[in-house]
């Protein structure tokens, strides 16, 4: 396997960043995870736009033209022979003697790109659907930035797994679901309306979320971007989560309450199929 680190392609097993890297010291950086479908990055313009926004918010300069980063991503994908999988990109504030303020502008940001095969849960999990566990959202107030500071997300996911759940649904102070630890949250109401929280600093603007919204609207499905409570989700007709790696994945239980009859719902299943068509179309294109 091959990884890209600061301008060179290295053996993955030996690739490393410096001990004084700001990513190591402060989690002072951002990342993207992009699906590879048929050997090509999926929805790359959306991921690049979000990456540039995250970088701008943290005042980290992309140390190469965006076009070149796209070339590196394709090259890492190709060198690892990934047909279906993910590309990971991290850009952080670079290497400098540990000190909280930004290093001088002459310090070049660190760029790491890796790729691996395999995407999301297997067919058995998809067919059965997954359980989510609710817990308080303990993250900072800028969840719109795709920061590598993921400690609350890690703790939430671990707590969910220890409770026998696939994902944590994090809940704000008013009882509304924000999102999962690495996924966006959705429900389908009794009258068939898709509901997901609007984009704001409270959640990450998922690229899968954006694509699913477009696919749903093109299908003529009713869509409402608004927050929903845990109680509303438990009483919903369907629930699901979305991300680059999980696509659209049915949520069949919330804590100990089954959602409807405890099986994946028809709208979720249809959306997942539409999304897979989108992946195949992009991969073939
Ligand atoms: N929310 C959070 C907190 C995430 O980490 C992710 C995954 N990056 C998502 C939502 C889903 O985003 P995407 O569809 O772009 O993978």
Automatic annotation (TrEMBL):
Entry keyword Transferase: yes
GO cellular component labels: cytosol
Record-listed E.C. numbers: 2.6.1.42
The reaction(s) this protein catalyses: L-valine + 2-oxoglutarate = 3-methyl-2-oxobutanoate + L-glutamate; L-isoleucine + 2-oxoglutarate = (S)-3-methyl-2-oxopentanoate + L-glutamate; L-leucine + 2-oxoglutarate = 4-methyl-2-oxopentanoate + L-glutamate
Top-tier EC class: transferase
Described purpose of this protein according to its UniProt entry: Acts on leucine, isoleucine and valine.
Keywords annotated in UniProt: Amino-acid biosynthesis, Aminotransferase, Branched-chain amino acid biosynthesis, Pyridoxal phosphate, Transferase
The name this protein goes by in its record: Probable branched-chain-amino-acid aminotransferase
